[in-house]
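Side project, low priority. Logging it here so it doesn't get lost.
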Amino acid sequence: MDENILQVAASWLFQHEKIAVLTGAGISQESGIPTFRGNDGVWKHYRAQDLATPEAFARNPELVWEWYLYRRQLVREKKPNPAHYALVRLKNLKQKTELITQNVDGLHRRSGFGEHTEMHGYLFRDVCTRCSWEREDYESHEKIPHCPRCGSMMRPGVVWFGESIPEKAWQHFHRLSRECELLMVIGTSQVVYPAAALSQYVRQRSAYVIEINPELTTSCQGKSIYLGYKAGFILPKLIDELEKLFKKTREVDR
């Protein structure tokens, strides 16, 4: 591990106030949650892409719900990892830090990060297919839940393939692309749009980018640093370095 690069990355975090964080499946995978892509994407001979669509739900809602109940059970058994908690530490140090995640598992919620944007929805939310009434549903095991208000079928509160990102998430995304001074990209292959475009917009403005991924996914040119490690390993170390800078500043001010 190059300590100099880690220290430079920490100094960038220290120098900037408007920090944006984009997380993807990689950070959750370190908690033991499958990506549901590639080899992880097969469940009872169905690909995730074949189940996470409005058409699949219309064709066989019980099958789709069975898959989502399986995913809920799997996620309930997992816990936030050191990378999730390191982001909470970052938020405590740099209070203007804002988070957008592509993940639906709610691990950032459980880590205590606070308000953030779930671009693709939340796994433990049910939404009525008729009146749009919604609820958070962490324990139910109904094969097909029905709306207590109008009696219609409910669906998982996630964004499926072919569906639009919620307007509120769009607004947050575009504001960060315009305003953030530094973007941290953590555990995402940056191939799923629109989230993948965030680093492109930020680079076009010549803002700073820190990417944390075992494998490099974008070209690190200009004001970019690549930390080629798992987030659960390197992110706590990065925040340790940031805390040292704050400590030095406090000592100088005395």
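Brief comment: The mean pLDDT is 91.
Revisit when time allows.
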